[in-house]
Every structure is written in C-alpha cells, then in structure tokens.
Amino acid sequence: MTESKRQELLATEIRTFTDLVNRQRAWSTAQFGETVPIDRILNHITEEVAEVKAEPGTLHNWIDIVLLAFDGAWRAGHSPKEVVQAIQDVQVRNIMREWLDTKDLLPGQPNSHKLSQAERIKKGELTEEEARLEK
Fold this sequence. Notes:
Blueprint: H1 3-10, H2 17-32, H3 38-54, H4 59-75, H5 80-96, H6 117-122, H7 128-134
Helix pairs in contact: 2-4, 2-5, 3-4
C-alpha cells in the first residue's frame, strides 16, 4: 500500500459504524487485494483466538477478531451496510432468545440459547411427532 493511500484512509472521517466498516474494507482491499481465500481469514481468526486465550485482558486482540470478521463478511459478498444491519439483527435476536442458566454449565462450556422446536428438529434432537406431543 502506498503512503498516500495510507494517509487517505487515516484522514477518512468516521461518523457512523458503517463508515468504520467501509474504511476497514478499503484498507483491506488496498493491503491484500480484492480476493483473499476465506480459509486464510479463518486461520487468522484462529491465531487471534489463541492470543485472546493467552491474554484475555488485551482489548486489541479481541478487536482483531472483530475486524477479521468484518473482512470475512464483505469478502463473502456482504456490503458494510449489510454487516452493520446484521450486527443489529443478531443483537436483537439474542436479546429475544431464552438462554441456558450459567449455573447449569460446566467450566469452560459455552453459554447457548435454548433451541426452538424447529431448531431441535433440524439438529435431529427431536422428531416432528415428539414436537407435536410437547405442545
């Protein structure tokens, strides 16, 4: 990336979250090109997760994961505006879900939401007949 491009990106005014995602996309494209295999991004996320495990209090390691997720999302075909909307949608969905009680979890076990009947059927944990009987 040229120094002039770097300065242009740094001078970009960030007023909205979408502006921030747009700047990340512009930087990533300038630095790495239009096409980067998704596996490369996923492997980088795996490396960053290892860094977070080693130093969970280091905020920059967490943010590296966020920025890599943005990069993967737009490289998978989603616009910055779609990324921001999806963040809002998933946040609302998570607020609306019922979650397992943390005191029922084993140490290190991720906290998951309770699955709907449709989700349980899809995962093979419940048959259509069993679902009808639960109602």
